[in-house]
Design a protein that fits this description.
- By secondary structure, this protein is mainly alpha-helical.
- It has one domain.
- It contains twelve helices and no strands.
- Helix 1 runs parallel beside helix 11, helix 6 packs parallel to helix 8 and helix 8 packs antiparallel against helix 9.
- The longest helix is centred in the middle third of the chain and has 36 residues.
- It is globular.
- The protein starts with a helix and ends with a helix.
Length: about 280
């Protein structure tokens, strides 16, 4: 196998592992990275790869939160097991809005929105929204809901509705759900964790859809690229998740808003004047 291709795959795995959890858009970054890190694979494979590589990142959540998410853990008493089952029902409820829209309009979304101008626009728009919403919260000074077990079904569904916005690349799934959760009155930690959990069925479903569309007839090179990308994104995601949870305990999301705006402007400059 070409060592250069392997190194490019590792770099893309690092990009995915970092950007999947930070509210800066993993799919958007992968689309942009493809401009500079050419995989030299078919367009259909790259479209599938950009989504399926996120399975590695999702497995990081499964590993880190296995006890919390496992309703059959022998270390939990009856009430704790029931709380876990209730949490999963909220996650499943929140999945439905984006799942329905994604299944119905997957091809249309790919055809119309998977391009640099859309990514740039979404980076800037949501970067501005992060700053506006965080400033608004400081003025209001309301006490956010900071206990995940108190997350209502209505709030869970509301966060799921916000996740629909993330079907447009450049938005960020975690960014859309975190913004939605904050607007609905959740603390940053609660909505970040719920966003992590929400990603499990969402990304398993999205990956299955892409694999079915692509077909299972992988070449040996394609299979190695896919596995390496997922493994690297898994390892990097472990650190990214821990970083984000530690960061938001002491900071707001405005720094990510500024980053998104700067990156969006750089994308516009690059594609308008340099490429």
């Amino acid at each position: 196998m070409d060592i250069i291709l392997l190194l490019k795959t590792v770099l893309l795995g690092i990009v995915e592992g970092i950007t999947e959890w930070l509210p800066i858009s993993s799919t958007g970054h992968l689309i942009l990275a493809d401009e500079f890190i050419k995989l030299n694979m078919t367009a259909d494979f790259k479209e599938m790869f950009d989504v399926v590589i996120q399975l590695g990142a999702i497995m990081a959540v499964v590993v880190l939160y296995f006890h919390k998410l496992n309703p059959f853990s022998p270390k939990k008493n009856h009430d704790e097991k029931m709380d876990t089952i209730i949490l999963w029902t909220k996650v499943i409820l929140a999945v439905f809005p984006a799942a329905i829209i994604g299944i119905l309009f997957d091809d249309w979304l790919n055809a119309h929105f998977y391009n640099p101008p859309v990514v740039a626009a979404m980076l800037i728009i949501y970067g501005i929204l992060f700053i506006i919403i965080e400033n608004r919260n400081k003025r209001i000074r309301r006490r956010p809901m900071n206990d995940l077990s108190r997350l209502s079904y209505g709030m869970a569904l509301g966060i799921g509705v916000f996740q629909i916005l993330a079907l447009i690349p450049g938005t960020s799934r975690s960014g859309a759900t975190i913004l939605g959760g904050i607007l609905l009155g959740c603390s940053r930690t609660v909505v970040a964790e719920f966003s992590f959990f929400l990603g499990i069925p969402v990304m398993f479903g999205a990956s299955l859809l892409k694999i079915v569309k692509f077909g299972l007839a992988f070449t040996s090179t394609q299979l190695i690229v896919l596995i390496v990308g997922m493994v690297v994104s898994f390892l990097v995601s472990i650190g990214a998740i821990k970083f984000l949870l530690g960061y938001i305990k002491k900071n707001d999301f405005k720094a990510f808003g500024v980053y998104r705006i700067i990156l969006g402007l750089l994308v516009i400059v690059y594609f308008a004047f340099i490429k």
